[in-house]
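Final report, closing paragraph on structural work. Over the funding period we assembled a curated collection of sequence-structure pairs, and we close with a single example.
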Amino acid sequence: MDIDSKIKAYRFVGYAALTFSTIAVLSVCITLPMMYNYIHHTRKTMHHEIVECRAEAKKLWGDV
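Its predicted structure, as stored:
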């Protein structure tokens, strides 16, 4: 392999690595807030359901 073909090969590998790392960072920047919002919504919903369940349990114990 002569020096020019090595330079072209290394340049290609460098650009490919840069492209893949940029895509990885952008995908993390997009999916991390989405996951945070999903988990926050799920926790809030579960807390609301637990409060309702406790109130219903207290009401049933009062009826008994």
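The helical segments are 3-63. The mean pLDDT is 95. We thank the funder for supporting this effort.
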